[in-house]
Design a protein that fits this description.
6 strands; mainly alpha; single chain
Amino acid sequence: MENKTLGFKGYLNKAIPIAGLILGISLVMFILSLLGQGSTQFIFWGSDVNQTAANLAVAAVRSTNNFDWTFIFILTVIIYIYGTELKNKNYKGIVAALSLYGVHWLYEIGNAIIGSTTGYALWTVSAQSTSFILLIGVSWELSMMFAVAGLVMSKLLPDDPKMKILGMNNRVVFAIGNAAFFGLFEIFLAGTPAFIWTYNWWGAIPVFITTYIPFFLAAFLMYDAKPKTQKKFLMIVWGLVAILLIVLIPLGVI
């Protein structure tokens, strides 16, 4: 019993500063949202005013009407990046990339399911902002960015996976920090015609906590994982992505 109690206390001691960091960043975002009320350039929360634009986007999912040759150029760049990392034997970086990208796809599928069942997705990309919409919440250009986001950000990680920052594991701190950056950047994106939030309870704070933290935790924790664990994680995530896409797209769900 004593060992169990000590173990629980140890877990609690690790969890409290992490929770505090997340809450602190969320509080900053909330204060910024209060200061930014009325801004048309920085949008912190969704609005039903955007429903018309979201409806137009639904009709454009996987339409080729806006296709242009940047599609091919971007694909070429991504292939070059992955090819270069493979040649340099940066397998850990590639695992980080594929881990984040796989989790990203699960979220996009979930977002598309929400959109088809409730009428509106949590986030939507507009037709005029892209050459091709893959699913309601992700354009080709955005998807390719996520394809390398885990790789790019993993290059900023400290060499020592056990190093502490403010008493916390540096992988967790970097995951939260990157999530905060991406969450804050969406405040700008939501103020453009390219990115749409329709629900007034969805915005920068839930995006930061429920979306981007899991993205970067997957990337950074898998970066240091044992090869067997990496393989299992990628097989499960990408296997689930493949099954969901194969089943749900023909059924018209997503």
